[in-house]
Design brief:
Layout lengths: L1 E10 L2 E11 L4 E5 L6 H9 L6 E6 L9 H5 L2 E4 L11 H5 L12 H14 L16 H12 L6 E5 L7 H18 L2 E5 L3 H7 L2 E6 L2 E7 L9 H8 L11
Parallel strand pairs: 3-7, 3-8, 5-6, 6-7
Antiparallel strand pairs: 1-2, 1-4, 8-9
Helix pairs in contact: 4-5, 5-6, 6-7
Length: about 250
Amino acid sequence: MITFHDVRKSFGANHVLRGVNLTVGRGESLVVIGGSGTGKSVLIKCVLGLVRPDSGHVSVEGHADDAPGREAFLARFGMLFQGGALFDSLPVWQNVAFRLLRGPGRLTKAEGRQRAVEKLRRVGLKPEVADLFPSELSGGMQKRVGLARAIAADPEVIFFDEPTTGLDPIMAGVINALIREIVTEMGATAITITHDMTSVRAIADRVAMLHDGVIQWVGPVADLDIVANPYVDQFIHGRAEGPIATLR
């Protein structure tokens, strides 16, 4: 579904991506792990065309982002942002239906609200939540609203950026289970960025380890604990000693 071919990206002297090669299959849930500042978010931005690689390319079903058809291209994606990124001034239903109320083929407000209520119900929220504002919701409810917005347009590809950040262990488990259920139910392709190894094991079909600008290892989630890769071993066990440099 998505292919990164020798993708390189630098910001001044900071060489973030140094030749990333990675393939994500249709309907697959891939989790990208790696330390902060290793370029995980830049990978997603390269897919969306928010960041242009200095060299190499990213393709979706064999096709690169085409500027003339950019709106249709972006309509294929959904995203759950790390901080929720809800609009404080809009009620929940307008947050969920935000993209559906704009652009060609947009829904009426009545249709948008109905769709929003359907998606809210899918993530375990009652219809009355639709008319509340984000400030009236708990962190876990806000995360569910963000998830409802990510799936509102029934996208083919969904990105999850640190989906359990700021949540207690129980709510994190609920969000992980929802993501796994929804991705499977929709048949969507998913790419998740996370530091939470519990999320990795709950969400992933395959795992890719990004460090020093390249993919150090990629394989089935079941192989995480047996792979003889020093980068993976240090990261998943949180060891201070290893090839990943730590500040002391």
